[in-house]
Each structure stands twice: as structure tokens, then as C-alpha cells.
């Protein structure tokens, strides 16, 4: 039974201990946090009451920020993290020996559209860490905070309690990016038992190498060839990583987590008549700091009268239009133009007075949150900002009284509308386009989650353009920031609530086939052992973009006949946004990675035979792909004795694969 959100106790510790602890972690671009529970009831979900000694608000999230001290020799040492990192950096008397790294500088590096990110969202030139290492460090801090708090205040027994973690990821991330998050979670110590967890002191000082690991039970292990991956240290142990991918770490899409919170709690505090009725269609717009995810789910009848399931009915969208893009627009259109024909002076001020820059952006943040489309904005400028202006701008052009006055119309046209227009237009496209399942359009309920989702101007624009396609006015949780982090823990408690997902890509493999007329243009011709002409780039789809697949259903089998005497067999997996692709050489196609099968272990350990003595036809392995999970899962079955075979998925680097796949807008 899934209780309503009104029954959740969101404050204070739980004086209970059990054999299992569920922790939902939300690593956001701007804010991060976690919720926890010791049982399967949503009413048992809680949040830590405070984050740091300076944060007494009881907020469920803290800043996604890491503060490093630069030691002699260029070595970076972690000083503090979260909101404490931001506040300490602002108050430093001499910040030259410190570096503040924000989530927008490392999380967005995993986005498919990272090539278009502005320079301020990139890591400092002297940063010795990769984005993956910084994600690992932030997850380590969250995990250590959670285990320390729960052991002290909630009766957690680290030596006997199995820990299960759920991490939310943007819907637009590739399978390779999701694998980076899974691997980072393991390196951060998010494993079943405490004794396998590395300490933060070692993880903050070393690289995190994604070693190739053999995974059993049909799960996948992987080594990502991500550009710049470190190699100074490896995972704690292969066995603990098996436990991790076997169930200790679960991935869920951010908009799915928000949908779970909305479905399990019909938001009674805001709309007493809102119910999760089987057959209704709900749309979730999860607008966070970095990305905006739009997903459409159909409510299905649950196993009991008071439960419900969610089935995705349309391909989710992921837009790089989060609230941090408003910050970038504010700098580009409001602050930098104040310097007239000397924009280089703004960059100099931003670089040399980084503490005041952080303070200046906090002043902007206050105006951004309260803007509703009708109010004029007054943004106080810091002392050093005003001083820098006075050195290069005529007196008559200086902002009056050291404050920047922006009218509501200017704020909309210069800052908000360029970011919000694509969100509203894509949401309109999702709502207005008839669904292939039933030919209907529109939705019964629209849930707006995430910090940016509570923007009054965004809500106004959505109402004006999309209102006719909705059964009621959009619903916004009282604290939209909690929607995703609550849903993460609910997903651990009830993983079967999400019953189907819609594929965002067309996945497939390349096969040898006789040439067709189109092969003269796209194919690569070769000859077989008998001299027959074949095309080596034919594309066999496993699942097409937009197809709905039930969770736990496998596509396949794809039969593999290893070459006699070889130690491994491999199959390349290709991905494209096109539904009817026919060749792996077509535009938009890229290789996602390679599934490697350890033939030597399968033959010698399970058969007790030598592969070299077998013919390729005698030895057959069937591959099955699960595209209904949060990320791609692979199983390999040895048909000669019906046992599972160890496999490894090696994802390709985007630089080697020709860059990210650009998904077409609705």
C-alpha cells in the first residue's frame, strides 16, 4: 500500500533499526540531498533535520558545491562541501588558495548537449579532477553524511544493515553517462555493507578508474572510455561491485521520481479532489537547475485497490533549459552589457573578485525566484562590481545608487523568455500530439516539480499556452524541491510501481547480409569465405525509438557464435534517434559500446572443454537486452547448458563516436 504524501513524516529521526535501509539520493546541478526509510511504507520516509551547523532551516537539500584548498605543489585537498562550502568561500579573507567547484561545472558535463555549454559551466583550467571524480566526491560526502547521521540518530547498525541507494538521473543522459553515475556511486561507497566502503579521505585524493569487471546475475558491469578518466585507483573490490549492480544501487529518471511522489501522494494539501485514477494520463514537468524533463505516464491499476502503477506512454524529453541557464542569460544580457565596449573588464572582475561574484549572483537569485512576469526588478550591485564599472564607464552611464533597475518587459524578453519558450513549446507538443496507444491527446493532470518548476512566471506561461490541453490547472507541490528526492526512496520501496518505459533511441546491432540497392550508397561491401558479396553495415534494430517496453521484458535473442579458439566474443551496439535506420553509416548513427562475452570462462569453467576444439556452430550464446530498466541491461545465456555467461559492456567515448546524438524536438 502506498500512502499519501500527507502521511509522510518529513522531519526528525526515526528511532528504529532494521536489516535494510533505503536511501534516495538526488545529486542536482544546484542542490543535492537525500531521504531515508527503514521499511517499505512511504509513511516511514524521513529527511535529516539539518545539514550543517550553519543551516538551521531544516531544508532537505544543500548546495551542490565542493571547496578545495590548493596546497603547495598544486595538490587539491577537500576542505568542506555543500552550503558550508559556499558560505565559507564568500567569507574567506584570502580566497586565492581555494577553489569552489559547483555542480553546474561537473554534473552537466555528462549531458548530451555539453558541447554547447558556456565557459562558466566548465571546470577551472587548473582543476586536477575529472567530472567523474568530482561526482564521486560529492556522492561520498552525501553517503558519509547519511550513514553518520543515521548511525547517531536513527539506530542504524552499519555492520549488519544492508544499504540500498537510489540515484536519480536526467532522462536525457545516455547509457554511458548513466554508467558513469553508477560507477561513481560504487566508488563513493554506496554498497551493501559498510565494510566495503572506501573513506572520503582516500577518494578525495585519488583518481577513480572504471575497471573492467565481470558481472553475474544478468546485470552489467562496464568500463567507460570517458575522456580524461583517472587511473590512480581502482574500485574497492570486484565482489562488492557485483553486489552494487545486483541491487544496492538503483537508477531512476528524475521525472519518474517526481511522478512517484505525485502518484503515491495525491497532494492532498493542495488539491483535495486529486486522485490517481486508473486510465488517467499524468504529465510531469521536472524543471531543475540543469535540465528540464517532460514525461507522460498513464495510471494503471495496482496490485491492491489503493495502489497504482505508472506506465510511460510517450518518449520523455530532456532539455538543457534549467534555472542555471537563467543565470547565464542574466550575465550575458544584464551584467556584462553594463561595461559597454569593455566586456573584458567584466571577465576580469569575475575572475579576480570571485567571492563578490558569488555574492552578486545570490542577489540575482532572489529576484529570479520572485519574478512573476509583472514585477520590475531591482538588483543590488556589490561594491567591487560598482568600482570596476567606475573605472571604465562614463559617470552618466553608471547604474543609479549602485543598483540595476530592470523592467518586467526587459526581464522577460532578455532573460526568461529565451529559456522558457522551448520548455513551453515542447510541453505543448507533448500534450497536443495524439498518442499512438489510443489516439487521444492532452492530459488529466500536469505536475510541475523541481526548484525551477515552482517559478510563478513559468507556471503562468504553461497555463496560458497549455491550459486547454489539461483537465485541471497544473499542480505544484508545496516544496517542489522534495518531489524527486522523495520519489527516489519510494522507488526503492516499491520498484514495481514503474511498469513500462518508452525508448528514447533506436538500439540495434550491425549484421552481415547480402547487399541491397541502398548499400551502394551507405553500406560497406565485403566477401565471405566462399567469395559471396556481403554488406557489413546492415543495421538490425532491437528496439525502435518511441516503442513502449515493459520493465523486465528482454529483447532478443541475438545469437552469437564465437570464433573457435578465441577467448572473447563481442557485439557492437549502435544507437540512433531515427526510427527506420538501415545502416550503421547513416547520419545520426553512433556506436554506443561493445558487449564483451568471456568465452574462455564459459567454456573451460562451465564445460570443462577447450574452445579451440569446438566449431562455431556448436557453441552458441544468446544475448538478451532489457530496455525497460533505467539503463540498458544485458544477459547472456549459454545455450549448450542453459547457464548465464559473464559479460561486460564497454561504452565508447563520445569523442571517438562522433559526438552526441541530437534528439529531434517534438
UniProtKB/TrEMBL annotation:
Name recorded for this polypeptide: Actin-like ATPase domain-containing protein
Domain of life: Eukaryota
UniProt organism field: Tetradesmus obliquus
InterPro entries assigned to the protein according to its UniProt record, in alphabetical order: ATPase_NBD, Heat_shock_70_CS
Amino acid at each position: 500500500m502506498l500512502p499519501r504524501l500527507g502521511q509522510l513524516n518529513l522531519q526528525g529521526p526515526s528511532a528504529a533499526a532494521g536489516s535494510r535501509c533505503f536511501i534516495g539520493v538526488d545529486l542536482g546541478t544546484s542542490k543535492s540531498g537525500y531521504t531515508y526509510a527503514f521499511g517499505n511504507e512511504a509513511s516511514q520516509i524521513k529527511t535529516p533535520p539539518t545539514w550543517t551547523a550553519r543551516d538551521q532551516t531544516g531544508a532537505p537539500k544543500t548546495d551542490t558545491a565542493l571547496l578545495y584548498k590548493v596546497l603547495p605543489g598544486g595538490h587539491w585537498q577537500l576542505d568542506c562541501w555543500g552550503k558550508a562550502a559556499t558560505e565559507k568561500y564568500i567569507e574567506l579573507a584570502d580566497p586565492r588558495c581555494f577553489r569552489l567547484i559547483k555542480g553546474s561545472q561537473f554534473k552537466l558535463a555528462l549531458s548530451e548537449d555539453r558541447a554547447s555549454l558556456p565557459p562558466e559551466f566548465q571546470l577551472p583550467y587548473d582543476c586536477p579532477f575529472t567530472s567523474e571524480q568530482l561526482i564521486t566526491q560529492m556522492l561520498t560526502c552525501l553517503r558519509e553524511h547519511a550513514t553518520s547521521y543515521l548511525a547517531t540518530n536513527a539506530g542504524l547498525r552499519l555492520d549488519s544493515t544492508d544499504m540500498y541507494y537510489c540515484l536519480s538521473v536526467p532522462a536525457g543522459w545516455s547509457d554511458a553517462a548513466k554508467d558513469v553515475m553508477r560507477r561513481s556511486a560504487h566508488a563513493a561507497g554506496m554498497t551493501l555493507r559498510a565494510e566495503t566502503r572506501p573513506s572520503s579521505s582516500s577518494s578525495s585524493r585519488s583518481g577513480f578508474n572504471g575497471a573492467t569487471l565481470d558481472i553475474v546475475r544478468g546485470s552489467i558491469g562496464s568500463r567507460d572510455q570517458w575522456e580524461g578518466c583517472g587511473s590512480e585507483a581502482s574500485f574497492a573490490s570486484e565482489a562488492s561491485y557485483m553486489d552494487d549492480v545486483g541491487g544496492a544501487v538503483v537508477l531512476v529518471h528524475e521525472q519518474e521520481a517526481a511522478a512517484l511522489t505525485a502518484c503515491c501522494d495525491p497532494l492532498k494539501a493542495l488539491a483535495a479532489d486529486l486522485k490517481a485514477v486508473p486510465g488517467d494520463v499524468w504529465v510531469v514537468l521536472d524543471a531543475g537547475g540543469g535540465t528540464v524533463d517532460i514525461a507522460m505516464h498513464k495510471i494503471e491499476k495496482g496490485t491492491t485497490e489503493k495502489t497504482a502503477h505508472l506506465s510511460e506512454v510517450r518518449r520523455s524529453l530532456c532539455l538543457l533549459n534549467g534555472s542555471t541557464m537563467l543565470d547565464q542569460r542574466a550575465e550575458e544580457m544584464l551584467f556584462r552589457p553594463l561595461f559597454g565596449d569593455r566586456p573584458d573588464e567584466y571577465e576580469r572582475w569575475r575572475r579576480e573578485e570571485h567571492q563578490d561574484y558569488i555574492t552578486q549572483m545570490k542577489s540575482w537569485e532572489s529576484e529570479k525566484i520572485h519574478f512573476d512576469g509583472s514585477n520590475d526588478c531591482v538588483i543590488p550591485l556589490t561594491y567591487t562590481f560598482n568600482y570596476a564599472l567606475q573605472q571604465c564607464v562614463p559617470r552618466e552611464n553608471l547604474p543609479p545608487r549602485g543598483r540595476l533597475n530592470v523592467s518586467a518587459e526587459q526581464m522577460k524578453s532578455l532573460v526568461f523568455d529565451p529559456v522558457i519558450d522551448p520548455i513551453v513549446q515542447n510541453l505543448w507538443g507533448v500534450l497536443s500530439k495524439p498518442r499512438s496507444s489510443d489516439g487521444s491527446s492532452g492530459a488529466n493532470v500536469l505536475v510541475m516539480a523541481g526548484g525551477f518548476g515552482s517559478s510563478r512566471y513559468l507556471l503562468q506561461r504553461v497555463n496560458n499556452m497549455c491550459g486547454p490541453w489539461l483537465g485541471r490547472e497544473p499542480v505544484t507541490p508545496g516544496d517542489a524541491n522534495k518531489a524527486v528526492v522523495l520519489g527516489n526512496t519510494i522507488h526503492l520501496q516499491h520498484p514495481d510501481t514503474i511498469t513500462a518505459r518508452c525508448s528514447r533511441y533506436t538500439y540495434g546491432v550491425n549484421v552481415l547480409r547480402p547487399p541491397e540497392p541502398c548499400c551502394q550508397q551507405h553500406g560497406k561491401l565485403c566477401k565471405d569465405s566462399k567469395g559471396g558479396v556481403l554488406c557489413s553495415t546492415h543495421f538490425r534494430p532491437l528496439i525502435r525509438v518511441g516503442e513502449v517496453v515493459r520493465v523486465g521484458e528482454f529483447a532478443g535473442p541475438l545469437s552469437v557464435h564465437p570464433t573457435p579458439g578465441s577467448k572473447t566474443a563481442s557485439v557492437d551496439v549502435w544507437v540512433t534517434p531515427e526510427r527506420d535506420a538501415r545502416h550503421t553509416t547513416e547520419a545520426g548513427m553512433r556506436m554506443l559500446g561493445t558487449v564483451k562475452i568471456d568465452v574462455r570462462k564459459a567454456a573451460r569453467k562451465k564445460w570443462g572443454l577447450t574452445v579451440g576444439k569446438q566449431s562455431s556452430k556448436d557453441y552458441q550464446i544468446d544475448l538478451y537486452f532489457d530496455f525497460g530498466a533505467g539503463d540498458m541491461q544485458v544477459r547472456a545465456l549459454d545455450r549448450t547448458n542453459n547457464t548465464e555467461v559473464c559479460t561486460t559492456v564497454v561504452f565508447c567515448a563520445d569523442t571517438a563516436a562522433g559526438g552526441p546524438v541530437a534528439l529531434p524536438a517534438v
